[in-house]
Amino acid sequence: MVLLANHDSVFLGLQQCARAMIKRNSGSIIITSSQLGLQGDHISSLHRKLQLSLSPGSPLLSAYGASKWAVRGLALTAAEELTALGIRVNSVCPGPTLTPLIDDMKDNDGNGWKRMADTTLMKRLGGAREIANAILYLASDAAS
């Protein structure tokens, strides 16, 4: 299910967007992956640092990491195929971000999010608006 949600849906969406954009020889596709699409081995050590209940060998972690690597590969391949047709393809790979998805990682002592932030270079969690602004820029003509 993880691969279906994280990879196959992106692949199908990319196909539909590309078909429409090829007809007009222009467009911009932004694919959202994850920091784990850049450093797949990071997921097990992240879960150990965060002291989450999932074990590092859990199939969920393997499937999630694999799906994010696959999305990154899809973006790279699509960029190579579509750039000559006037279509820009970018991939955004955010790290831990404050969203409802990570609400359950905020443990009772309030240190779950802090431990997660401590695994990042900036020692803070990202914000959804920050990611949205990056995507808006990539979609604009200014990014050409």
Short description:
With 144 residues, the protein is mostly helical. It has helices at 2-24, 42-50, 59-82, 112-118, 128-139, and strands spanning 27-32, 87-92, 97-98, 126-127.
Describe the structure.
With 144 residues, the protein is mainly alpha-helical. It has a single domain (2-143), classed as Rossmann fold, CATH 3.40.50. Helix content is 52%, strand content 11%. It is built from 5 helices and 4 strands. It has a two-stranded parallel ribbon. A two-stranded parallel ribbon has the order 3-4. Helix 1 packs parallel to helix 3. The protein is elongated and about 55 Å long. 17% of the residues are buried.
Write the layout of secondary structure elements.
Blueprint lengths: L1 H23 L2 E6 L9 H9 L8 H24 L4 E6 L4 E2 L13 H7 L7 E2 H12 L5
Helix pairs in contact: 1-3
* Apparent shape: elongated
SS element count, helices: 5
Indicate the structural class: mainly alpha
At the fourth level of CATH, the homologous superfamily is: NAD(P)-binding Rossmann-like Domain
Strand order of the largest sheet: 1-2
**Total number of β-strand segments?**
4
